[in-house]
Amino acid sequence: MRARRKSTLARARDVAPVFVVIGIGVAAVFVAMNVLVTAAPVPIDQSPSPSVSALPSFPSTPSILPASVTSIPTPAQTASLPAGRPTIVNSALSASASNRAWTVYLGYPAFVEGTTPWADDIDADILGELQTRAAQWEQGPAANRQAGAKVNTLSGTFTTELLTPALASFTMTWVDDSSPSGPGTSVETLNYDLSTGQRIAFDDLFIDSSNALAVISSAAVPLLQQELGADYDPSIAVDGTAPSPSNYDNWSLTPSGMKITFAVGQVSSRGPTLPAIVVPWSSLRQVMVQTGPVATLAGF
């Protein structure tokens, strides 16, 4: 017997439940996906698990920022400056070994409190610098007792290169006689922005330190020839005045320009002297930051 074909309407009624089920399933998946996306994250307990035995404690290692994150330094606090220049007094750090193997006497400038806003901070910074240097010397060269009753000595003096309401610049000179070959002289410079109480770095003054070193190096040669006269020796001076940061570590501020003090033997073989030159501000303005801490001093 031949089967009778169902009408189109009848077949539609048979298939309809299937589509309903499929539709319900799709809707359920869609709702579930939205729930997963919008649901609040579940808190995870990230506290460390208790350990059986205590481990040694080490200094924490600074975390490394992702490459895409830029660390922005916090700007230094500034203070209003008085109309008059600050007052400094001659101070000294002195110490001696109990067995008289060595003695230290380092003179340094100290700001009188109230004559500049950051007097205490700057005084602490200078004193800390001297204490560090003295401690390194006491534990190093001075620890080697020389023959006989000779006492190792480290002495220091300072020169005020510039002192205004806004700026202070000092050259510190050290004489160490702990070496059997004789006393050695070294130098260090300290430059301060008195509106912030912070030391001024070389990079604070110039747009590009490499360009600045090239300009200073070019100016240094003729200035050094004038300073040394007959003692000028190109075979020594050329290397000592090359545009390398280490050649220009000791710079200070003066009203007329940047003073460069060279180490003993760096640019001349003439005795234990510390040759110095002053590069005029007019020669440096082309490479200087026009809004830097010494902009007014340089004539901007």
3D structure, described in words:
The chain folds into two domains: 77-200, 2-Layer Sandwich (Heat Shock Protein 90), CATH 3.30.565.40; 201-300, Alpha-Beta Complex (Actin, Chain A, domain 4), CATH 3.90.640.20. Helix content is 30%, strand content 22%. It has helices at residues 8-38, 119-139, 202-205, 209-228, 234-240, 281-284, 295-298, and strands at 88-96, 102-111, 152-163, 167-176, 184-193, 198-199, 251-253, 257-261, 276-280. Strand 1 (88-96) and strand 2 (102-111) form a beta hairpin. The chain is flat and about 60 Å long. The termini are far apart.
Briefly, what CATH class of the largest domain? Answer: Alpha Beta
Kindly report the spatial arrangement of strands forming the biggest sheet: 1-2-3-4-5-6
Average pLDDT works out at 81
Task: Please compute the radius of gyration using only Cα atoms.
Answer: 36 Å
Contiguous runs where pLDDT drops below 50 for at least 5 residues: 1-13, 15-71
What is the CATH third-level topology name of the largest domain?
Heat Shock Protein 90
Q: What is the CATH homology-level superfamily of the largest domain?
A: Fervidobacterium nodosum Rt17-B1 like
CATH architectural name of the largest domain = 2-Layer Sandwich
- Helix percent reads 25-40%
> How do the helices and strands follow one another from N- to C-terminus?
HEEHEEEEHHHEEEHH
| Secondary structure: number of strands | 9
Distance between the termini: 113 Å
Based on secondary structure, the structural category is alpha+beta
**What proportion strand?**
15-25%
Categorize the overall geometry. flat
Oligomer: single chain
Please indicate the count of domains: 2
Number of distinct helices: 7
Main sheet? 6 strands, mixed
